[in-house]
Amino acid sequence: MCDKNVEGFRVLASYFEYENNVFWKRAHFFLIALTILLWFAATSLIRISPETPYHRLVILLVASGAGLFLANIGWTALQQGEKWISHWEGRLHKLEEKALGDVLVLRPDSDGNPELSGAKKTAYDAIVVFMVSWALSIAYVAVMIICKIFQCR
Q1: Are the CB atoms for 32 and 80 separated by under 8 Å?
Q2: Contact at 8 Å (CB) between 99 and 9?
Protein backbone atom coordinates (compact mmCIF):
# COMPACT_ATOMS: atom_id res chain seq x y z
CA MET A 1 0.00 0.00 0.00
CA CYS A 2 1.41 3.30 -1.12
CA ASP A 3 0.53 6.61 0.57
CA LYS A 4 -0.11 8.06 -2.90
CA ASN A 5 -2.70 5.36 -3.62
CA VAL A 6 -4.35 5.80 -0.23
CA GLU A 7 -4.56 9.56 -0.74
CA GLY A 8 -5.94 9.05 -4.25
CA PHE A 9 -8.53 6.64 -2.89
CA ARG A 10 -9.49 9.17 -0.21
CA VAL A 11 -9.94 11.94 -2.83
CA LEU A 12 -12.01 9.69 -5.11
CA ALA A 13 -14.10 8.58 -2.13
CA SER A 14 -14.88 12.24 -1.35
CA TYR A 15 -16.12 12.75 -4.94
CA PHE A 16 -18.17 9.57 -4.66
CA GLU A 17 -19.68 10.76 -1.37
CA TYR A 18 -20.40 14.20 -2.83
CA GLU A 19 -22.23 12.74 -5.85
CA ASN A 20 -24.29 10.47 -3.58
CA ASN A 21 -25.28 13.44 -1.44
CA VAL A 22 -26.23 15.49 -4.51
CA PHE A 23 -28.25 12.56 -5.87
CA TRP A 24 -30.34 12.37 -2.70
CA LYS A 25 -30.77 16.14 -2.47
CA ARG A 26 -32.08 16.12 -6.05
CA ALA A 27 -34.34 13.18 -5.33
CA HIS A 28 -35.77 14.89 -2.25
CA PHE A 29 -36.28 18.17 -4.09
CA PHE A 30 -38.14 16.60 -7.00
CA LEU A 31 -40.23 14.28 -4.84
CA ILE A 32 -41.28 17.12 -2.53
CA ALA A 33 -41.99 19.53 -5.42
CA LEU A 34 -44.00 16.87 -7.27
CA THR A 35 -45.94 15.98 -4.13
CA ILE A 36 -46.91 19.62 -3.51
CA LEU A 37 -47.90 20.13 -7.15
CA LEU A 38 -49.89 16.88 -7.20
CA TRP A 39 -51.66 17.90 -3.99
CA PHE A 40 -52.70 21.16 -5.69
CA ALA A 41 -53.91 19.29 -8.78
CA ALA A 42 -55.69 16.56 -6.83
CA THR A 43 -57.61 19.02 -4.69
CA SER A 44 -58.68 20.79 -7.88
CA LEU A 45 -59.50 17.58 -9.76
CA ILE A 46 -62.01 16.43 -7.17
CA ARG A 47 -63.94 19.70 -7.60
CA ILE A 48 -64.31 19.48 -11.40
CA SER A 49 -67.84 19.35 -12.73
CA PRO A 50 -69.52 20.21 -16.05
CA GLU A 51 -70.05 23.71 -14.65
CA THR A 52 -66.34 24.30 -13.99
CA PRO A 53 -65.23 27.42 -15.90
CA TYR A 54 -62.82 27.01 -18.80
CA HIS A 55 -60.10 29.06 -17.14
CA ARG A 56 -59.95 26.67 -14.16
CA LEU A 57 -59.72 23.68 -16.49
CA VAL A 58 -56.95 25.35 -18.49
CA ILE A 59 -55.04 26.20 -15.30
CA LEU A 60 -55.35 22.59 -14.18
CA LEU A 61 -54.25 21.34 -17.60
CA VAL A 62 -51.19 23.62 -17.51
CA ALA A 63 -50.38 22.55 -13.93
CA SER A 64 -50.65 18.89 -14.96
CA GLY A 65 -48.39 19.48 -17.95
CA ALA A 66 -45.91 21.25 -15.69
CA GLY A 67 -46.02 18.31 -13.30
CA LEU A 68 -45.30 15.84 -16.08
CA PHE A 69 -42.47 18.07 -17.33
CA LEU A 70 -41.03 18.39 -13.79
CA ALA A 71 -41.23 14.61 -13.30
CA ASN A 72 -39.35 14.11 -16.56
CA ILE A 73 -36.67 16.58 -15.47
CA GLY A 74 -36.44 14.76 -12.13
CA TRP A 75 -36.00 11.42 -13.87
CA THR A 76 -33.26 12.86 -16.08
CA ALA A 77 -31.50 14.53 -13.15
CA LEU A 78 -31.46 11.26 -11.21
CA GLN A 79 -30.10 9.38 -14.23
CA GLN A 80 -27.31 11.92 -14.69
CA GLY A 81 -26.48 11.78 -10.99
CA GLU A 82 -26.36 7.99 -11.11
CA LYS A 83 -23.90 8.16 -14.03
CA TRP A 84 -21.51 10.24 -11.94
CA ILE A 85 -21.90 7.96 -8.93
CA SER A 86 -21.10 4.96 -11.13
CA HIS A 87 -18.14 6.81 -12.63
CA TRP A 88 -16.53 7.50 -9.27
CA GLU A 89 -17.39 4.04 -7.97
CA GLY A 90 -15.64 2.48 -10.98
CA ARG A 91 -12.55 4.59 -10.33
CA LEU A 92 -12.61 3.56 -6.67
CA HIS A 93 -12.82 -0.13 -7.60
CA LYS A 94 -9.73 0.21 -9.80
CA LEU A 95 -7.72 1.85 -7.02
CA GLU A 96 -9.13 -0.09 -4.07
CA GLU A 97 -6.72 -3.03 -4.08
CA LYS A 98 -3.65 -0.82 -4.58
CA ALA A 99 -4.72 1.55 -1.82
CA LEU A 100 -6.20 -0.82 0.75
CA GLY A 101 -4.77 -4.26 -0.04
CA ASP A 102 -7.14 -7.07 0.89
CA VAL A 103 -9.62 -4.72 2.56
CA LEU A 104 -12.56 -4.22 0.20
CA VAL A 105 -14.63 -1.16 1.04
CA LEU A 106 -16.73 -1.28 -2.12
CA ARG A 107 -18.05 -4.69 -3.04
CA PRO A 108 -19.52 -5.32 -6.48
CA ASP A 109 -22.58 -7.57 -6.67
CA SER A 110 -21.99 -11.28 -7.29
CA ASP A 111 -22.16 -11.14 -11.11
CA GLY A 112 -20.21 -7.87 -11.41
CA ASN A 113 -23.14 -5.89 -12.81
CA PRO A 114 -24.03 -2.57 -11.22
CA GLU A 115 -27.55 -2.45 -9.85
CA LEU A 116 -29.49 0.31 -8.22
CA SER A 117 -29.82 0.06 -4.48
CA GLY A 118 -33.30 -0.54 -3.13
CA ALA A 119 -33.60 3.08 -2.02
CA LYS A 120 -32.49 4.48 -5.38
CA LYS A 121 -34.86 2.16 -7.21
CA THR A 122 -37.66 3.41 -4.98
CA ALA A 123 -36.80 7.03 -5.87
CA TYR A 124 -36.96 6.17 -9.58
CA ASP A 125 -40.21 4.23 -9.08
CA ALA A 126 -41.75 7.19 -7.25
CA ILE A 127 -40.92 9.47 -10.19
CA VAL A 128 -42.62 6.95 -12.52
CA VAL A 129 -45.73 7.00 -10.31
CA PHE A 130 -45.77 10.79 -10.61
CA MET A 131 -45.39 10.60 -14.38
CA VAL A 132 -48.35 8.23 -14.63
CA SER A 133 -50.40 10.39 -12.26
CA TRP A 134 -49.70 13.50 -14.34
CA ALA A 135 -50.52 11.71 -17.59
CA LEU A 136 -53.85 10.56 -16.11
CA SER A 137 -54.55 14.07 -14.86
CA ILE A 138 -53.88 15.53 -18.31
CA ALA A 139 -56.16 12.93 -19.91
CA TYR A 140 -58.95 13.56 -17.40
CA VAL A 141 -58.83 17.33 -17.76
CA ALA A 142 -58.65 17.05 -21.55
CA VAL A 143 -61.78 14.88 -21.55
CA MET A 144 -63.53 17.40 -19.32
CA ILE A 145 -62.59 20.24 -21.69
CA ILE A 146 -63.80 18.25 -24.69
CA CYS A 147 -67.05 17.46 -22.90
CA LYS A 148 -67.46 21.12 -22.04
CA ILE A 149 -66.91 22.09 -25.69
CA PHE A 150 -69.38 19.49 -26.99
CA GLN A 151 -71.65 19.83 -23.96
CA CYS A 152 -71.54 16.17 -22.92
CA ARG A 153 -73.47 15.07 -19.85
Answers
A1: no
A2: yes
**Are 60 and 48 a contacting pair, CB within 8 Å?**
yes
Measured distance CA(112)–CA(19) in Å, rounded: 21
Pick the more confident residue, 118 or 50.
Answer: 118
pLDDT score of 110: 44
Residue 30 has pLDDT above 90, yes or no: yes
Count Cβ neighbours within 10 Å for each residue of 8-29 and write b for 16 or more, e otherwise: bbeebbebbeebbeebeebbee
Provide the angle, in degrees to the nearest 10, between the axes of the packed helices 54-100 and 118-150: 170
CA distance 75 to 131: 9
Q: Where does the pLDDT of residue 34 fall: very low under 50, low under 70, confident under 90, or very high at 90 and above? A: very high
